[in-house]
Amino acid sequence: MSDHVVIRKLEHLRGNARAPALRYAIETRATAGPAFKNGAFAGDVVWIKLHGGLMIGKAQIKIAWVGEYSSLREIQARTAGSAIQNDASFWAGRPKFGYAVVAELQNERWLEPKWQGPRTYGYEWVVMDSDNKATTWFAEKPPPRGGEDLLKRFLEWRDGS
Question: What are phi and psi of 139, to 5 degrees?
């Protein structure tokens, strides 16, 4: 079993003050990435992080699909019935074909938001496949310049303000 960190932009979050409702962790890449190579399995822990470095939630993989795709629509179809399926901004700019991991999530819950590890602007899914990587990604950090605004916007979104 592995831990994974899935990174989302604030505008692609779903849920309410009680719990996140992402329903799916998704990665699409033109080349095979670590999640594709290492896999994602039922029972694996998924940490939910915002672009910018704010750790906000935790979930568990219920079931996952890892494979190659020849049309991005194939990946969207795997998220049927979820809000993210029809969110054009989430799918914009993704490779039209390549490698993907789609994991259905369960037991989603918010954590007390805290700044941890890299700021995550270039990542979507990270596999904690070494102690060194886990130490780096879970180390508490001071907020980045302007980070207070991300924390404020997240709390307002989560709490429905």
Answer: -70, 130
| Average pLDDT, 10 consecutive residues per value, the chain (161 residues) | 92 94 96 93 97 95 98 97 95 96 98 91 89 93 88 94 55
* Structural domains of the chain ordered from first start: 3-159 (2.30.130.30)
Q: What is the DSSP letter of 79?
A: T
Give the up-direction half-sphere exposure of residue 146: CA atoms within 13 A in the CB hemisphere. Answer: 3
pLDDT at 120: 76
Residues 6+ apart with CB under 8 A from 27: 6, 33, 35, 36, 100, 101, 124, 125
* Distance, CA of 119 to CA of 160 (rounded, Å): 25
Euclidean distance between CA atoms 57 and 142, whole angstroms:
18
